[in-house]
Each structure stands twice: as structure tokens, then as C-alpha cells.
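Q: What structure does this chain adopt?
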Amino acid sequence: MMTIRSMGLGVLATAAMVLAGCATKPKHSYPAGVDPAAESKNLSQEMRELQAQQLDVLSPVHYQNANRAITRADRQINKDGDRTGILNDLQIARDEISKTKESGEKWRGELKEAADAREKALQAGAVKSYPRELATMDEKLKDMTEETKIKSGTYRDDSLKLQKDYMAIELKAIQRRELGQSRRLIEEARDAGAKRYAPQSLSKAETDLQSAERQIEANRNEPGQYAEAVTTAKNSARALLSVTLTAKEARNKSPEEIALAIRAKEAAIAEQEKRAMSLENMTEAQQAELAAKDQELESETQRMNQQLTAAQAANLKLEKENAFNEKLKEIESQFSKNEADVYRQGDSLVVRLKSVQFSASRSDLPAKSLPTLAKVNNVIKELGAEKVVVEGHTDSVGSKDVNQKISQERAQAVSQYLVSQSAAASDKVEAVGYGFEKPITSNKTKEGRAQNRRVDIVITPASIE
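A:
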């Protein structure tokens, strides 16, 4: 059962000390020859052990009382203060440590779920990874364990809630420990332009990272079960950064410059060989050294050839991307805002016709749509389309079957017009009706229904140079 910490841990401890002051201050039971400094050191070590056993949060009042008593004693030791007063404070600390152990172990039994989950969170590194979140949860735990009287059997619900919170932070700490490097590499690659220069590698690295996160979530207590996924994520992240930097560098260096760098490396190795002794006069060790250099040269040449190939591929892909985007802008400028929207969909271009608005339940081609379709016809020819898919869409008025039929008929009406105008051969043009399955706006208004009665033309160009 949670209690309200209206007075706070420090106030409770202070109140206890004031009450204690009304009585005689505890007298120490240390032998005459005891060393106060050594005893303080021993007690401080015991305090660290209590913390390792979580007793600082399972019995916070007694733990803090002990800590304050040791602090007072140390202050007087440093000042060469009264020996009796120092030993009295150390006695208080020792008594409070005993109470911490006794009270804390009782609370551990009452809050076993929460205590066990917290211990695992600490082992996972939550103190370093998520100190604020851990401190917030610990405060909730102390809200209960500050109570001096334990009402046995009444804390299970609260213990289970805390268990859930500690388990969540444990999972986050494990994922950060295992995947922190991968996350940093991916972030570094993003900052370097991975989305532009290495989108496929970025997608793979992000997918592998998510897969590793799920593996850890499913097997947090069995590292062997998620080790392979973690390794895969790390390798993908390293590869992503490497590909990104290589492709980015290739923007500033031509393939010829990269090839010249390879030849420069070869020339340097060759010059070293010229200065070497002839094979006849070489010792076995010298021959082995030359063989090693040959192997090094071959490996370096292969590596730089691979870099050259990757750079050329990246350059080619980037050139195609730029060409496609330029063509997209050019085509978009051919249509007014009232005629059509033009956008990219993967390697295809979509022309969403606005001026070809069919009347409800009709599939005959409106005469006013012909000028816009003529522009589409020119675009298809200009792109040398490899494939054209005409998609018919309806509003939600009427049954599914009726709308499916009319959307198919509308798509066919447009596709037949395009074929008749020699935009593309009939075997390259496909008509597909989707009915009301893919609305672009709400069907609740007249305007919305009009927009949903539309035709989208998906054009896949053979190539854009």
C-alpha cells in the first residue's frame, strides 16, 4: 500500500533524532583500544554492502540514520574531536545498520517481485543508462518501505506495479548496452547523409536493429538467444556508415580519380620491389617478406577495386535519382493544379487526374477531360513507358460490387483512350478497378465524394537518362 511522503525522508529521520535527543544519548560499547577512524572505515564498507543488497531502498530511514551518524563521526575525527562523542555516533551507526538489515529483509519478503526486478535492472546497467527513471521508481519504492509497521500481505499489487516498471527499465538498459554502438553508428550515418547516399543500407540497418531489439525483448534473460541478432545489427550499422561515407566521397572524386589512387598504391609497392635484392640473392626470409608484400598489394588492389565499383554504382544510382526527380518536376509543370497532381511512387510516376471527374454511377469519359488526357498521352510517350496501370476509384455510394464494376469500367475507358492515341501498346496498358477501397478523403461530403471518383495513372518508365 503506497503512503504519502508528506514529510519526506529527511524530515522523518530528523524527527527521530529529536525524539532520541529527549532521552539519554546512546553510550557506546566499544573497547578502550578501538581506533575510531578504522571503525568508521569498516562501517562505511558495510554501508556499501547494504546498498549492494538494495537495503538502502528497502529500509531507507534506518539506512539514512546510519549514514548521518557516520558523517558526524567522520567530521569530528577530522577535527580531532571528542573521542567519546565520536564513538557514540559510531555506535548509533552500527545499531542503525543492524536495524537496516532486519527491516530491509522483512520488506524484501513483502516486495519480492519489485526487489528482484530492481536487482536485474541494476545488473543491466540502469544506474548508468537511465539514472533519472531509476530514481523515480526508487522513490515510489521508498514510499512504502518508510513505513515502520509492516502490514504483511497487503503490498502485492504495488509490488507487481513496481516490478513492471523495473522490468521496463531493465529491458531498455539491456538494449542500450547491447545495441548502443549500433544506434550511434546509424545516427552518425544519418548525419552523414545516409538517407540520400545509402537508402537501402539504411533501411537494412534499421530493420536489423529493430529485429535485435525484438530478440532482446523476447529473450532478455538468455543472451545466447539474441547474440546473433545483435551481431547482425552491429555489422549492418558498420556497413551502413562505410557505404555512406564511400558514396559521399565519390561525389567529390570521379571514378578515374579513385582508379588513379589504386595505381599510385601499385606504383609505390613496385618501387619498393625494385630496390630489393634480386630473387637469386634473397634469403628465405626475404622471399617470404616479398611474398607478403605481394599479398598485401593484391589485397589492397581488390579492396580499392571494390571501392571503385561501389562508388561507380553509387554515382550511377544518384544520377538516375536526380534525372528522375528533374523529369518529375518537368512533367508536374505541364499540368495545372486543377488538372492533375504528379508524384513519385517508388520507380514509377503517378498522375492523379483531377479534371476527369465522372458523374455518379457513370463510366463514360467526360468530354472536358480530353485535353488533360492528351497531356498524359504525351507524358507516356515522352517516358517511353514500360508499363501503364490505370486505376479506377469510386465514392462509397452504392454496393461494393456495383462500385467495383463501375471503377473497372472507368479505368478501361481511360486505358482504351490512351491506347487509341498510341500512347502505349495495349499489352503495356492495364486497367484495374478498386471500387471504394482506396479513398483519398472522406465520403461524407459532396466534395469529398467527387474527389474519390477519380483515376490514377501509374507510369513505369523504361529508363530516365
